[in-house]
Design brief:
The complex is a heterotetramer of chains A (about 350), B (about 140), C (about 500) and D (about 400).
Chain A (H helix, E strand, L loop, with lengths): L9 E10 L5 E2 L1 H8 L10 E6 L9 E7 L2 H14 E8 L13 E9 L1 H7 L3 H15 L3 E5 L4 E6 L3 H7 L6 E2 L1 E9 L12 E3 L2 E7 L4 H8 L11 H15 L4 H8 L4 H5 L3 H13 L9 E7 L2 E6 L8 E5 L2 E5 L3 H4 L7 E3 L7 E4 L6
Antiparallel strand pairs in A: 1-10, 1-16, 2-9, 3-8, 3-10, 4-6, 4-7, 5-6, 11-12, 12-13, 13-14, 14-18, 15-16, 15-17
Chain B lengths: L1 E5 L9 H11 L4 H5 L9 E5 L2 E5 L8 H5 L5 E4 L2 E4 L9 H5 L28 H5 L5 E5 L3
Antiparallel strand pairs in B: 1-6, 2-3, 4-5
Chain C lengths: L9 E5 L9 H5 L5 E4 L4 E4 L9 H5 L5 E5 L12 H13 L4 E2 L14 E3 L20 E3 L22 E3 L3 E3 L9 H14 L3 E2 L16 E5 L8 H6 L2 E5 L10 E3 L6 H7 L7 E3 L9 H14 L6 E6 L4 H9 L5 E5 L8 E2 H6 L4 H14 L7 E5 L5 H10 L3 E4 L1 H7 L21 H4 L4 H25 L15 E3 L4 H7 L2 E2 L3
Parallel strand pairs in C: 9-19, 10-11, 11-12, 12-15, 15-16, 16-18, 18-19, 20-21
Antiparallel strand pairs in C: 1-4, 2-3, 5-17, 6-20, 7-8, 13-14
Helix pairs in contact in C: 4-14, 8-10, 11-14
The chains are: A alpha+beta (about 350), B alpha+beta (about 140), C alpha/beta (about 500), D alpha/beta (about 400).
């Protein structure tokens, strides 16, 4: 069974590391971090998002694509050539690991939209890229774009996350931010595309939880041209964040106030101006409110955001050491890589923690 | 203190208060058994005329003329409630002569009768109020 | 005298062992079904006058009365049942259209009863409303399509006018005239106490009730009764009534006998004249005409109030709704074929329209497919009977529901469906002073408040079970629903899976 | 503060209960020439009739004096009042000093000067418990009783002793029974009723001469008797005040605060006369309710609370052998009348006010009429036609009803 053919509730482990100064570091430590939470996963999915790993190609969209077959690869590359200028293409380097099996063809493309096509589409560049990704994922059977941002990449597979990390040789990448996900699905999906993180453009989401508002959120977001093909929370959350941030122009702080909105009783006690703003956000974007348990780490170009649901029904701890910032489902997953911390705390439900590069971007 | 108040706006003239009053004074548990084939002589009475209806029962006056006028001392006021000692009353009807509401009436057994807020019945609370289907009779504290 | 073919439908059964001749049944029956025979010192009854409203049964202090359906029958016939035969007798006698009241009583499927709700187990926690906040507040109205910021980057409040409700329920339109002054007062006071809205219906608004304006929806119907500037200004929202679930395509008719001094003043028509609402609005023969009325009402009220357009659920309801969503209306109210009425031609009531569940599902889907769901809120009506119906309606995609019949039941209505006679023994659907006073608003409004309070608790319990702590997350959340005993097509229209899937 | 009350009947009790509302400590002394716990005088006829007992006749319960901290001195007759020293001198030579004094001495039966009265051995009056007991003691089956006076006292006495299977004859100078409270027709109804109960009357006659056991009337009719009861009326006991130069008329004259003309001396009850507001005339209204309310009024003022009682009217509730009579006010002005031969109703009204009424038989809700007189209710403020037929609150305005029944303040 493939992801997308059914709802697949999961328990999970998540972890994230971020360097405010933009100092790049190896992916090894994120593997160590997620590995300590092995019993929060069950070997049916793991993955990573890494930011700042393609400095030499940072002006180009990096597509990571799974292919089930050569023919799928052929169709997809044909489509890519029609819409993009392909600067570089290669297999994503992996190493054999006994725990990881049934691997698909895994390819990486650095691309830029063809100016003529882009002009014809009358869309802005990022929207054009999104549409193309949706086209491939829905129209080209056996091809699935699982990463499409600039200067970042997603690496995921079916297996325990640490095995997945070694499979992708993650320790060989250097970036300023890594997030990781270990999955505990209640069903048994065989498909790599269903593993997390889920990403669109440079937004990537790792998520632990099962949201009760799923179908309300899905049916609302699908009004705006998104297709929830995987039926996963992570997918719909990613789309909501993309919609609110990229399309509606809400700030990340405001997005927290929408998807994990404060309760009316809290809002009522705020000063008038703030009260009005909160009431506005809640009622204007009511269908983007997410209820039920979740803790998420959102990666994006130049930053990272950690957020819990409004009742904090999932564990999540954050910590700081000098310019480094850490998030994880469990404190142990932070201590294993940095035991000497300046500050450790557990954000309140609905209290988003956002970190960005001091210089804005690399 | 708690008093019975009547609001004619809501009185339907259904006379249920009279039956619940009569029922209460029998101390029976089943109204059918208590009142079957009986002509009731309630302490609360409905006045009806051209669509206007209202119930009248003892107001338990601050300055009770019936008590002051009673020649035997059978009528007395305790804790705001005017009660009658039926075995001292000799039915001279001086109270009927005095009561400005017509709320004291003769009864079969040689003593007069009046509303005593059901305090002498088994139920203990005014049953006319309980029996009123439309809130036209209420028993409440209004802070004099 | 002509033969009377119609045998009484009910029998009044009196237990003479318990009857104490208190005569309350006689005094309380406006149909004069009970009579006291003084020379026999016995009560007697005339079954043919009984409408089975239970007033006497409820007030009999010794429980000596019951009303039973007569078991008098015609010869068995699966095709020609007693009802059909009696209707023919009646029409052969009267030569008139059959009239009835309240909602469609016929045996069509009730989809709400074939839908089941979900609850959380293990993978995510259910939420206990007694311990955690559980939010039922809803805002009705169009939502902004883009955000705007001021020079300091603060969000501007560009929100169109909204209705704020403490829970997704409102009292549906019932005109002053079709129901009594005391019924209206009860509804208005209950709405005010619960933080919801009630609806004037097409009969205008009695001056005494202007003070409840913030909780009032003022209706503009084809008869335009009682519509004037002050009326429009007095409400929190304006509803254009295009149709009614109980009688799609039919106007209204309030007999002159019900048009007393107060009503005539409120409706702005002469005392004693019939109040007839035309079937269509004669200034609305098409969707663009509707748009003009919507905007003229907005102009008249300075764009400060949401405009509701109420339609009956008919076959192409989705397309109609989509048109309305583009007409400038802020809220669409859809009334299913089980909706109540003070009087409707029986054939129309029983044979025209759609079940609200299907209408709602298809409208919600259509508006989403067209990306205009946020242009409007959807309010559904037409037999919402319980908090479970509400939860299911919201999960199917409604923002809010209207309750009419349920509210009247709370006020004492026993669904005898004789409103058209004007002799409502419960003081609801009548204008006879002696009957109207039987509904004491102090009691009536409290009963309404009790009902809604109870429903609110139940809604929270069901939401909590699903792990949802805010009603927004239930809206359109069809994954929380499963069908039982529904065929593929029905499931497809409802947009839900079958139980077990 | 020391209060002295002369008399131990209704007015005295009213005074005590009023004083104790305002003054819980002050000393109260009650002087009674009788030897009984306070009892209700009107009940003496019921005692003979067996409808009550000496125990039940007590007007207040046994603990009354102790609960109200009263010193009751029985068998003490007040001889005179020493105004200078504020003392009451008693028949035993002792005296009682007072700060405030209440005269509640009531009235005494009037004994008419009839020739040969002294020859009569068994002659009685009928106002006190002792009278009643004495009378009862001499009665036996088929003793013949002659009652002089067909007024309230005489007829009540007649009813009282009727049970003893005695032969009762009643003589009165007046042409009617109960002439002071009934008009001709109603009086006739009552007379018939009494005759049906074996009481025979000689009306418009008087006794010219008496012998030991025979009375001779002015028409020479001779009436043999065994017991003679004198019930021609009572006289207020005014001497105590009269002797010290206080204003008196038939009764002691008091103002609406029950003050006599002498400082710190008050009077209440049958011994005084006050304004009948239904006729605006000063009258002796020897009625128990008035006695109580005057006593109460006196008591309030004696204990320093200004209090006015200006609502006195003549009124009577009386019954004989199950026939009830209620009357009040004065019988002047226009008349509303209805009668079915058994029940009798007559209302008297003028200048927009009800002056008085007579009810015989059906007396239900009579108090509504009484209140119209007492409150001088303007008749044009109510549905007079209705209230004449049916006494009730229906005749009043909606607002009045809301006030009376709904507790709505004006």
């Amino acid at each position: 069974m493939r992801e997308g053919m059914f709802r697949n509730p999961s328990g999970c482990a998540i972890s994230g590391i971020f360097s405010r100064s933009g100092k790049r570091f190896s992916g090894k430590c994120i593997i160590d971090s997620i590995a300590t939470m092995r019993d929060r996963s069950n070997g049916l999915g793991g993955g990573f998002a890494a930011y700042g790993i393609y400095p030499e190609y940072k002006e180009y969209y990096a597509f990571h694509i799974f292919y089930d077959s050569k023919s799928a690869k052929k169709d997809c590359e044909k489509f890519l050539e029609e819409h993009f200028d392909i600067i570089n293409l290669s297999k994503i380097p992996t190493q054999k690991v006994p725990e990881i099996t049934d691997e698909p063809l895994i390819w990486r493309y650095f691309v830029a939209p063809l100016p003529t096509k882009l002009a014809d589409s009358q869309m802005d560049e990022r929207e054009f890229v999104v549409k193309c990704v949706f086209r491939i994922n829905t129209a080209i059977d056996g091809a699935y774009v699982f990463s499409s941002g600039k200067n970042m990449g997603v690496f995921k597979a079916v297996g325990f996350p640490e095995d997945v990390g070694r499979f992708y040789r993650l320790e060989e990448y250097e970036g300023y931010c890594f997030t990781a996900h270990g999955r505990y699905p209640t069903n048994t999906p065989g498909w790599w595309g269903g593993a997390h993180p889920f990403a669109l453009l440079d937004y990537s989401v790792v998520h632990n939880g099962e949201i009760s508002s799923y179908d309300a959120n899905r049916r609302a977001i699908e009004m705006y041209g998104y297709k929830c093909t995987l039926q996963t929370d992570t997918e719909v959350i990613t789309y909501i964040i993309d919609y609110l941030h990229r399309k509606k122009g809400l700030k990340l702080e405001e997005i927290c106030l929408v998807i994990a909105a404060p309760f009316w009783t809290t809002i009522e006690n705020k000063p008038e101006e703030e009260r009005q703003e909160l009431e506005y956000l809640r009622s204007a974007f009511a269908s983007q409110l997410i209820t039920g348990p979740f803790s998420i780490i959102v990666g994006f170009e130049g930053g990272m955001m950690a957020l819990n649901d409004r009742l904090k029904l999932r564990s999540m701890v954050v910590a700081e050491k000098d310019d480094m910032f850490y998030v994880a489902s469990e404190e142990a997953a932070i201590r294993i890589i940095q035991n000497d911390l300046d500050k450790v705390w557990s954000p309140k439900g609905g209290e988003g923690v956002i970190v960005t590069l001091e210089k804005g971007r690399i | 203190m708690k008093r019975v108040y009547v609001n004619e706006k809501w009185c339907l003239g259904c006379h249920l208060c009279e039956y619940y009053c009569a029922f209460a004074s029998t101390n029976e548990t089943d109204m059918a058994k208590a009142l079957k084939d009986k002509k009731i002589n309630p302490r609360i009475r409905i006045e009806s005329n051209e669509g206007i209806n209202f119930a009248v029962s003892c107001r338990h006056c601050e300055e009770p003329l019936c008590v002051k006028g009673c020649i035997t001392g059978a009528l007395s006021k305790n804790d705001g409630i005017i009660t009658i000692d039926r075995n001292r009353c000799i039915s001279c009807y001086t109270c009927i002569l005095c009561c400005p509401y017509g709320a004291v009436s003769p009864s079969e057994d040689g003593a007069v009768q009046k509303c005593e807020l059901c305090i002498k019945t088994n139920v203990g609370t005014p049953q006319c109020v309980k029996g009123c289907p439309n809130g036209a009779i209420v028993y409440e504290e209004r802070g004099e | 005298m002509a033969i009377n073919y119609v045998y009484p439908e009910y029998e009044i059964v009196r237990n003479y062992d318990r009857c104490i001749n208190c005569r309350v049944c006689e005094r309380q029956c406006a149909n004069e079904a009970h009579k006291y025979l003084s020379d026999y010192n016995k009560m007697t009854s005339d079954d043919s006058k009984c409408v089975n409203c239970h007033r006497c049964v409820a007030l009999c202090p010794t429980r000596a009365l019951k009303i039973v359906k007569s078991n008098h029958t015609f010869r068995e016939n699966a095709n020609w049942n007693g009802k059909s035969i009696n209707e023919i007798y009646k029409q052969a006698e009267s030569g008139g259209v059959l009239l009835s009241s309240m909602g469609n009583p016929e045996n069509y499927p009730v989809y709400f009863d074939k839908i089941l709700l979900n609850a959380s187990q293990v993978t995510n926690p259910s939420i206990d409303p007694l311990r955690e906040p559980m939010e039922t507040r809803v805002f009705l109205g169009a939502k902004p399509d883009r955000i705007e910021r001021d020079e300091n980057g603060r969000l501007k409040n560009n929100m169109p006018p909204q209705l704020k409700l403490s829970m997704p329920v409102m009292f549906s339109a019932m005109s002053y005239g079709s129901i009594s002054y005391n019924a209206h007062e009860s509804l208005a006071r209950a709405a005010a106490e619960m933080g919801i809205l009630y609806n004037t219906g097409e009969g205008g608004l009695h001056e005494d009730f202007y003070k409840y304006g913030q909780n009032t929806i003022v209706q503009v119907a084809s008869g335009r009764f009682g519509v004037h500037k002050k009326y429009l200004d007095s409400g929190a929202a304006i509803e254009i009534k295009m149709g009614q679930g109980a009688k799609p395509g039919i106007g209204g008719h309030l007999p002159g006998t019900k048009v007393g001094e107060d009503i005539s003043k409120t409706r702005m028509i002469p005392e004693g004249t019939d109040a007839i609402s035309p079937a269509p609005h004669h200034d609305i023969y098409s969707i663009e005409d509707l748009r003009q009325l919507v905007y003229s009402l907005k102009e008249a009220t300075a764009y400060k109030k949401p405009i509701i357009v109420k339609i009956a659920a008919v076959h192409n309801v989705a397309a109609i709704a989509s048109g309305i969503a583009r007409s400038g209306a802020d809220i669409i109210a859809i009334d299913g074929f089980r909706g109540g009425t003070g009087a409707a031609p029986t054939r129309i009531r029983d044979h025209v329209g759609l079940p609200i569940e299907l209408a709602l599902a298809s409208v919600d889907k259509r508006l989403r497919d067209e990306g205009i769901r946020n242009n409007v809120s959807i309010v559904v009506a037409g037999s919402i009977r319980s908090s479970a119906d509400i939860v299911k309606a919201v999960a199917l995609g409604a923002d809010c529901v209207y309750i009419g019949t349920a509210a009247l039941l709370a006020l004492g209505c026993h669904l005898c469906r004789s409103c058209q006679t004007g002799k409502c023994n419960w003081g609801i659907a009548t204008q006879r002073a002696d009957l109207v006073k039987r509904l004491n608003p102090d009691i009536g409004y409290k009963r309404l408040v009790n009902l809604l309070t109870a429903w609110k608790h139940e809604i929270k319990e069901m939401m909590g079970g699903m792990g949802i702590n805010s009603i927004e997350s239930l809206k359109g959340n069809r994954l929380m629903l499963r069908g039982v005993g529904l065929n593929e097509k029905e499931l497809e229209i409802l947009g839900i899976k079958h139980a077990g899937e | 503060m020391k209060y002295v009350i002369i008399g131990n009947s209704t007015a005295a009790i009213g005074a005590v209960e009023a004083i104790r509302k305002n003054d819980k400590e002050g000393k109260i002394v009650i002087l009674s020439k009788e030897n009984h716990h306070v009892y209700s005088r009107p009940l003496i006829s019921y005692l003979l009739l067996g409808k009550t007992t000496e125990e039940k006749m007590k007007y207040r319960k046994d603990s009354f004096y102790t609960e109200n901290k009263c010193e009751l001195k029985l068998n003490k007759t007040a001889e005179r009042i020493d105004v200078e020293n504020k003392q009451v001198i008693l028949d035993d030579g002792s005296y009682e000093s007072y700060d405030k004094l209440l005269i509640a001495t009531g009235s005494s039966p009037f004994v008419p000067p009839i020739r040969g009265l002294d020859k009569v051995k068994n002659k009685y009056t009928f106002t006190t418990l002792d009278d009643a007991k004495a009378l009862e003691s001499v009665l036996n089956e088929n003793s013949r009783v002659l009652i002089v006076g067909a007024g309230l006292i005489g007829l009540k006495c007649a009813e009282g002793i009727s049970k003893k299977k005695v032969k009762i004859t009643c003589v009165d100078l007046s042409s009617r029974v109960l002439s002071s409270i009934l008009d001709d027709e109603s009086s006739e109804i009552v007379k018939k009723h009494l005759e049906n109960n074996n009481i025979s009357f000689y009306l418009e006659h008087q006794i010219t001469e008496l012998d030991e056991d025979i009375a001779v009337l002015d028409d020479n009719t001779k009436i043999p008797f065994d017991v003679l009861v004198l019930a021609v009326g009572v006289r207020p006991n005014v001497s105590l005040i009269k002797d010290i130069g206080g204003k008196t008329n038939r009764g002691i004259i008091i103002d609406e605060r029950c003050r006599t003309s002498i400082p710190d001396i008050y009077a209440a009850g049958d011994c005084c006369e006050s304004i009948d507001i239904s006729s605006e005339e000063a009258k002796v209204m020897a009625l128990l309710p008035n006695a109580y309310m005057q006593g109460e009024c006196a008591g309030m003022n004696m204990s320093g609370v200004d209090f006015v009682f200006d609502k006195a009217i003549p009124m009577n509730a009386i019954g004989f052998f199950g026939l009830h009579i209620i009357t009040a006010g004065t019988y002047s002005g226009d008349v509303y009348f209805e009668s079915d031969g058994k029940n009798y109703k007559k209302l008297f009204y003028s200048n927009n006010k009800l002056n008085g009424f007579i009810l015989v038989g059906n007396v239900e809700k009579a108090g509504i009429y009484t209140s119209l007189i007492r409150e001088k209710t303007p008749l044009d403020t109510l549905d007079f036609e209705l209230i004449c037929k049916i006494p009730g609150l229906m005749a009043f305005s909606k607002e009045t009803r809301a006030e009376k029944l709904g507790g709505v303040r004006k």
